[in-house]
Amino acid sequence: MSSIRIVLVDTSHPGNIGAAARAMKNMALDDLALVRPLGFPHADATARASAALDVLMRARVCATLAEAVADCGLIVGATARPRQQHWDILDARAAASRILSESRTRPVAVLFGSERVGLTNEELGQCQWLVRIPANPEYESLNLAMAVQLVCYELFVARGASLPGAERDVPLASATEMERFYEHLERVMTEVDFKDRTESGAHLLNRLRRLFNRAEPDENEINILRGLLTAVQGKRRKAGS
After folding, report:
1. CB 55 within 8 A of CB 24
2. Would you list the domain boundaries of the chain?
3. Would you identify the CATH topology of the domain 4-158?
4. Cα(178)–Cα(227) distance, integer angstroms
5. pLDDT of residue 227
6. What is the pLDDT of residue 63?
7. Fold of 175-240
8. What are the distances in angstroms from CA 170 to CA 70, 173, 175, 219, 223?
9. Distance of CA 48 to the CA centre of its chain
10. Are 115 and 144 in contact (CB under 8 A)?
11. For the chain, what percent of residues have pLDDT higher than 70?
12. Fewer CB atoms inside 10 Å of the end CB: C or N, the chain?
């Protein structure tokens, strides 16, 4: 998503720059701008970037914030302050969808201030609105790279990203196999006199059906359950003889 730019302003710890680059690559972002970083390039930044050196090496170092956001249509500032009089403040999740929408026409910049004081009032003055990450009111302080990671994650999810479906080693039990299991289960319930003790006494098997349908058993698991039912029947026959 090169139309979304992460801008770090006055970053004092080079390691945070590398960690931010890594956070961005995790979430498919690659446009990083650095405004007046205290130390960059730096070995700590390289070490913390891990496999995201490509993002780090492409980072633009700018002398001013205006230079870093010159081509951006929307500028959003990340803040830890719960209230700002002159700006709308959205949480990271709500902000993500708006940022994505605006990024379709012009680049969007998301600003993160220095570790010590965050964004100054002058820097906030260049923002249309602000984004805030909800946190424990008793301890709301987030590491810079952690804040970048959370905002980038929300952008990644808002874009429609999802976990890949798990590949099954064994296929799900077929509808026919499930019906045979339910018939077998009902027979065993009758044999052991396991009945619905509720007032209506008519919903137990339907409830069991819903339970096993939610479990999505595969062929092996249904065979195990059928084997268990058969073993119960075998024990009853031996006891009866």
Report:
1. yes
2. 4-158, 175-240
3. Alpha/beta knot (3.40.1280)
4. 14
5. 96
6. 96
7. Helicase, Ruva Protein; domain 3 (1.10.8)
8. 55, 9, 15, 7, 12
9. 22
10. yes
11. 91
12. C
Band (pLDDT 50/70/90 cuts) for residue 238 is confident
Kindly state the tokens that stand for 179. 């019906």
Computed from CA positions of residues 99, 102, 105, 107, in that sequence, does the dihedral angle turn out positive or negative? negative
Tokens standing for 172? 């799900």
SS (H, E, C) the chain: CCCEEEEEECCCCHHHHHHHHHHHHHCCCCEEEEECCCCCCCHHHHHHHCCCHHHHHHCEEECCHHHHCCCCCEEEEECCCCCCCCCCEEEHHHHHHHHHHHHCCCCEEEEECECCCECCHHHHCCCCEEEECCCCCCCCCCCHHHHHHHHHHHHHHHCCCCCCCCCCCCCECCHHHHHHHHHHHHHHHHHCCCCCCCCCCCCHHHHHHHHHHHHCCEHHHHHHHHHHHHHHHHHHHHHHC
| Structure tokens given for 21 | 């680059």
Return the amino acid letter for 15.
G
pLDDT of residue 141: 83
Q: Return left, alpha or beta for 11; rule: phi > 0 is left, psi -120 to 50 is alpha, else beta.
A: beta
